[in-house]
Amino acid sequence: RTLLASNVVWLNSDERAQAVIDRLRLDMLPGELRSHATFNSDPTRLTVQIDVTMEDGPLAAQVATEYGTLLEEYRTAENRDAQREDRIDAMKIDTASYRQHSPRTQINTLAGAALGLLLGGAVVFVLEYMDSNIVRRREDVERFLELPVLAAVPAQDSRS
């Protein structure tokens, strides 16, 4: 279990990134490839997870598979020199797969339109409700009090 973390550190190095670049003949620097890859260990399941995030899904799957192959080769070489009880076997238990993680524009557009209509309707309702309680004219007072208005103070002329 303690070696899982050291395997993650071993994978997350410029040397391993350069090996993957060389094997797949990629046109990038090791630091750039490492920025696309994350490595995590799970001591409860005794696994190392390799995630690669790139625009090109099939290429990301190839990179993840190649990192897994590197780890397998490293552990096989280490096991040759280790005693039997100290050996750690590495194997790929899952095939690399890819899926779209970027925004789904069609769903986001429909959700935005629906939310915009609901929010817009709510704002209009609230403003109309608040506006109905404002007294502006003589008719508003008569309607609210249900009594006729006997006198009103004239509006002040702004020109004088």
Summarize this entry quickly.
The chain has 160 residues and is mainly α.
Structural account:
- The protein contains six helices and two strands; from the N terminus they run αααββααα.
- The protein is mainly alpha-helical.
- It is 55% helix and 8% strand.
- It has helices at residues 2-11, 14-24, 30-36, 57-81, 105-131, 138-145; strands at 37-42, 47-52.
- The model has no long low-confidence stretch (mean pLDDT 83).
- Helix 2 packs across helix 3 (30-36) and helix 2 packs across helix 4.
- The protein is rod-shaped, with a radius of gyration of 34 Å.
- The termini are far apart.
Strand order of the largest sheet: 1-2
Strand residues, percent: 5-15%
Principal-axes geometry comes out as rod-shaped
Could you report the average pLDDT, rounded to the nearest whole number?
83
User: Alpha-carbon distance between the termini?
Assistant: 90 Å
Spans of at least 5 consecutive residues with low confidence: none
Tell how many strands the DSSP assignment holds. Answer: 2
Radius of gyration equals 34 Å
Oligomer: single chain
In DSSP terms, counting alpha (H) and pi (I) runs of 4 or more, how many helices?
6
Which structural category do the helix and sheet elements fall into? mainly alpha
The percent range for helix content is 55-70%
Return the string of H and E elements. HHHEEHHH
Largest sheet: 2 strands, antiparallel
